[in-house]
Amino acid sequence: MKNYILTLAxxxxxxxxxxxxxxxxxxxxxxxxxGKWNYEATSAPxxxxxxxxxxxxxxxxxxxxxxxxxxxxxxxxxxxxxxTYTCTLYMDGASxxxxxxxxxxxxxxxxxxxxxxxxxxxxxxxx
Length: 127
Fold this sequence. Notes:
Oligomer: single chain
Structural class: alpha+beta
Largest sheet: 9 strands, antiparallel
Number of helices: 1
Shape: globular
Radius of gyration: 19 Å
Strand content: over 45%
Order of helices and strands: HEEEEEEEEE
Strand order of the largest sheet: 4-3-2-1-9-8-7-6-5
Mean pLDDT: 82
């Protein structure tokens, strides 16, 4: 009986470890996020309310270029937890916390500046 319980416990530990590692790997290698996306933040100030974000993966690290009316800001890295991507960027002297949620092939998100939270929608850019 003890051997059965020990075998079952070891099997469950291995199974959950494999699932966790698989989920982390698939989040890092999620090619459906890579590429250009149009974004719109209707409650953001005019001029900042729409633009393009271009996600790039290099050496397993996700980065992006944010283009707002021709002004390009580099986002060096994202923190990835499951299907949630977060980063902080600085624009015009303000710190902006960005959270992007990936659900299937759709992206939604929010940007927080000085305590104000603005919803952000994304659509895949036509290339």
